[in-house]
Amino acid sequence: MRFEDLPTPCFVVDVALIEKNLKILNGVMQRTGAKIVLAQKAFSMTALYPLIGEYLSGTTASGLYEARLGHEEMGKETHVFAPAYREEEFDEILSICDHIIFNSFSQLEKYKDRALRSGRKVGLRINPECSTQVGHEIYDPCSPGSRFGVKREDFRPDLLDGVSGLHFHTLCQQNSDDLETTLRAVEEKFGTWLPQMEWINFGGGHHITRDDYDIPTLEACIKRMQNRYGLEVYLEPGEAVALNAGYLIASVLDLHKNGIGIAILDTSATCHMPDVLEMPYRPPLLDSGLPGEKPFTYRLTGQTCLTGDVVGDYSFDRPLVCGDRVVFGDMAIYSMVKTNTFNGMALPAIALQDKDGDCRIVREFGYEDFKYRLA
User: Fold this and answer.
1) How far, rounded to the nearest angstrom, does the alpha carbon of residue 28 sit from its chain's CA centroid?
2) Residue 81 and residue 181: Cα distance in Å, rounded?
């Protein structure tokens, strides 16, 4: 099947572009000795886990189900962090996870001994109180009142026995200069305890595979922790694994006008690309321009009853007609994992594009997926 023959709506992930990203990440690992694991919260397409496992060290999870997914489908290192663990799930987490990271000293006190008896590596998330994000406060773990990590003023050195590593995650789609800034804050606030640790986890949010990403600065940060404190270094990017490697194909169902041309698509920002509304951001669209840049401007919208189900305004070289296909870019990350069936919207099919350009559908969804989600 060729790209133009796929049904709509459909997510398409390009295997060659995924592998290109993986080679960049693996290059960092080879040059520095650091370990990079996939943050499944951004991308968890298990059909590609065998390929990802050839290049990366394993997976990291935000809870039991993601941990199971990484353990069962990739079978390499499995890390987990949660703001709080559920008692009824913790034994299973112990059975499948190598690194268990706690968000607070109270969680550490509750579960540490069990984790150590199971032979697991125990870590603690710290809050370096160093905000480097601009315009994405919803994604800033160092913002005032954040629930993530232990601040210096609340640190309990008397409870560190058995803790082998520290974890911080403060970045979101950022370059390595922000990591460098954060690392200085980590050393300033928690450097006293770094020599007694075995490892440090830089968390995620590193846009390592972006064209303008400064890899030498990242590698200098890694080597600084290795050389100064003798630490093994982990990174857990999610977006970088599948950045710019996927598409969402949609079709124009109807055309409408209300001060601007309106195209109603068979996809939905609300259901199929919710980060468009949550971030918010305007996703790239192939063969289009900014509003007014090309002769014909349209507002691309979804099918749901939510008035704000709007993807964005785009311009085209010719008028749109019903049946036209539009292709959104960078749709492998977060969009796929956040889809929902609000209003009874069907989930998009999922396809892989092989290196020779051939496509194959790996999953299709129907009424039963909607019906039994809520029972």
Assistant:
1) 19
2) 23
Q: Are 265 and 31 in contact (CB under 8 A)?
A: no
Instruction: Output DSSP code: residue 129.
Output: -
In angstroms, the Cα distances linking 369 to 64, 76, 345 are 22, 30, 10
pLDDT digits (tens, 9 = 90+) for 107-166: 999 999 999 999 999 999 999 999 998 767 788 999 999 999 999 999 999 999 999 999
Q: Supply the range of the domain harboring residue 364.
A: 3-11+246-331+339-374
- Quick one: 219 and 148 in the same domain? yes
Choosing from 242, 271, 288, the residue where a domain stops is: 242
Domain count of the chain? 2
Phi-psi region of 259 (alpha: psi -120 to 50; beta: other; left: phi over 0): left
Model confidence, pTM: 0.95
Please report which residue ranges of 155-299 form alpha helices under DSSP H.
176-190, 215-229, 239-242, 269-272, 275-278
Cα distances from 138 to residues 102, 143, 280, 282, 302, in angstroms, run 22, 9, 11, 17, 24
State the DSSP H helix or E strand holding residue 30, giving kind and residue range, or none if neither: helix 15-32
- In 3D space, the residue among 126, 134, 216, 225 whose CA is nearest the CA of residue 174 turns out to be 134
Place of tokens 């987990």: 80
Contact 322, 252 (CB under 8 A): yes
